[in-house]
Amino acid sequence: MSKRAFYTGVTPEAYNELKSKLQTYGMNLQGNSGRIDEKGVNANFNYDPEAKSLEISDLSVGFPASMMINSDSLMQRMNEMITQYGGRAEG
Question: How would DSSP label each residue in 28-87?
Answer without folding.
Answer: ---SSEEEEEETTEEEEEEEETTTTEEEEEEEEE-TTGGGT--HHHHHHHHHHHHHHTT-
